[in-house]
Amino acid sequence: MLRQPVRMLTARLSLRQPALADAVAVLDILSDPSVVQHNPSDLVTELEDVEALVTQWLRHWERHGFGNCCVFEEETGRLVGSCGLRWMTIKEDRVLNLMYRFHPSAWGQGYATEAAAALLHWAQESLPAEPVVARIRPTNLASQRVATKIGLRRDPAFDDHGEDGLDWAFTHRS
Fold it and tell me: Which domains, ranges and CATH numbers included, belong to the chain?
């Protein structure tokens, strides 16, 4: 089993495996309608629902040795978002789904780009043959900018319909 480092450091961030104790801060992020504007089915308003979500994240870590991370400002220790990789199937292909969600107070600071780049680098080093796919709604321009800044490109071969509509795929495949 591959093992993502327990804690990854970037210039300004610390990414680590989530803990149930993080659920309150994750709830603060995922209960904000602006955070899930492009994925409204991901809105979570109850602590028990976030605890169940964090438990799912932890199960992925247990099975695969990597997964969704909680992202903290290194300077303040404040949980500002989540960013991670998880296995999923798109059109019968097994891929690594790269996702990122951040609190609005952290938007515009490059945190999503910094965290996503660190995880993409880890995936390219640890699982070089596996496609990494960021699934992004066509109207989510901010998320598309993050994907392209870290070197992902539109890959219509992986476009698919998600729970909230069409997902465009951005990958590192040539």
Answer: 7-171 (3.40.630.30)
